[in-house]
Amino acid sequence: MILRSTIETPLGPFTIFSGDAGIVRTHFGEDGSEADLDAAEDRRRTALIRREVDAYFCGELHAFETPADLSALGDGFVRRALETVRTIPYGQMWTYGDVAAAAGAARGGRAAGSALARCPIELFVPCHRVVRAGPNLGSYGRHDDRRRFLLRLEGAPADDPSHL
Hints:
By secondary structure, the chain is an alpha/beta fold. Helices cover 28% and strands 18% of the residues.
């Protein structure tokens, strides 16, 4: 059974879909793009997840305990890359090349970028911590302001990642 819970955050509504093995999908906004998931609202059973998200946005939580369920992605590079991203410490930034190397593809920076672009789970898989090597952050879909907000919340240098 998939459960749904929507939380108000400084970035707007954040909807979390969770199953027995953890978070399966998240979504910022209200555009209804998650209608394909048959999910029941259950605030009692999602209370821990809600507390974690609230604590994260208050700057009190640096690592989520709730797991991300990436099993739908299979066992290939995409899943390995996203599991690697989950290990990036709060407030740190890695490059796509760093993620690729840690996921077992030393020359796979572009592949890592493609994997992160398909990530169905924000925050719990902190893709916002992965940036281009060089003087700018690179693209974060259409949500560059969201990335900057999250990096600043974590104390990372959101305006100048050139030290990477």
